[in-house]
Design brief:
The chain contains 14 helices and 10 strands. With about 350 residues, it is of the alpha/beta class. The N and C termini lie far apart (about 55 Å).
Length: about 350
């Protein structure tokens, strides 16, 4: 495609294209007449550059992103970069919105003009924020560390292994479940030995997790999404919705949103199954933390304090509100299986 058509299609100027080329962000081939000939790959690259620039990324940051993005899954990573960049921008705008709302509330309740001027000045002052590129790389590094943790350490975790085996046994018993949604699938350890007789949709918010999962179970359908804020209509409904060792990584509000979405994704007369590290209530957790302190088991205490965990009493209250049946069984200490039957 020639330069004029690229400019018209992507709404860029010739000067912008020259800058991108001079900075090494694109390298279009030349025809015999020395005119530039942009390929489909070039168009994808230019579109991504334009979007990242609109989101506030500098040319320097974009060059670093492209250096980071050198895998065989270039196209998927290209779209993923855009998703994460947009998420970061939404987060930034939400924070700005909240700051302005707080400023309005403060000004409304002040009578002194000098105080009001000071408040407005503080609201207008830019916050020191982490570079957007650094935030994205930090997330990618976390995703990769999480994969390594799942693959190396969790496979030596007796509680985790017992929970996964319990889930497999239950799935086999639920022979009539045609469509299954695995929420927070990670690298799909659950399905590694289950064969292809199930219609599984594997959902996770980490692209790296899904790419690792696809290597293990290529027959599954994969969905990059966050269970706390997803589009239920796009997925449809499932006979069985299952989550193993996911919710204890999410805060209380996120857990409530996740459980609500899981129930909505479950068909009438279907089941939601949660296998999770949890406590009966917050008081039980506090007692466990106190005991670990007394025993000097600092490493275990640090792990416990780093997670949110699930509280059975809160889940029971919500399920009672929905008027659904709920069955709880203990797999290991502080690891329980919760089965929720949705009304037909």
């Amino acid at each position: 495609m020639n330069t004029r058509k690229v400019c018209d299609q992507l709404h860029v100027t010739q000067k912008m294209l020259r800058v991108y080329e001079d900075q090494g962000l694109i390298a279009p081939k030349r025809k015999e007449n020395a005119y530039r000939d942009y390929s489909i790959e070039d168009l994808f690259q230019i579109e991504l550059i334009v979007r990242l620039r609109k989101l506030g990324f500098s040319i320097k940051d974009i060059k670093r992103i492209f250096q980071h993005n050198k895998t065989e899954e270039d196209y998927i990573n290209t779209f993923y970069i855009q998703i994460k960049a947009i998420e970061n921008k939404i987060k930034e705008l939400e924070e700005a919105k909240n700051r302005l709302a707080n400023t309005v509330n403060e000004v409304i309740n002040r009578e002194d003009l000098e105080d009001i001027t000071k408040i407005i000045y503080q609201a207008a002052a830019p916050e020191e924020k982490e570079n957007a590129y650094e935030e994205m790389v930090r997330q990618w590094d976390f995703d990769q560390m999480a994969i390594n943790y799942v693959e190396r350490f969790l496979k030596e975790d007796d509680q985790y292994l017992a929970g996964i085996q319990n889930a497999r046994t239950l799935i086999e018993q639920e022979g009539g479940a045609k469509r299954i949604l695995d929420v927070g699938c990670g690298t799909c350890n659950l399905w590694e030995t289950m064969g292809t007789r199930y219609q599984v949709t594997a959902l996770d918010s980490s692209l790296n997790m899904l790419m690792a999962a696809r290597e293990k179970v290529p027959w599954a359908v994969f969905c990059l999404s966050d269970i706390t804020r997803l589009n239920q209509e796009a997925l449809g409904q499932f006979d069985l919705v299952i989550s193993t060792f996911t919710l204890h990584h999410i805060d209380k509000n996120g857990q409530e949103a996740a459980l609500k979405n899981m129930m909505q994704l479950c068909k009438p007369s279907g089941k939601v199954v949660i296998i999770e590290r949890c406590f009966q209530n917050h008081q039980q957790r506090l007692k466990a933390e106190e005991w670990l302190k007394e025993q000097g088991r600092d490493e275990e205490l640090a792990i416990l304090e780093s997670e949110w965990y699930l509280y059975l009493d809160q889940v029971q209250d919500y399920i009672h509100y929905l008027k659904c049946k709920m069955e709880v069984s203990e797999i290991r200490k502080n690891v329980r299986r919760i089965i929720i039957e949705k009304e037909g």
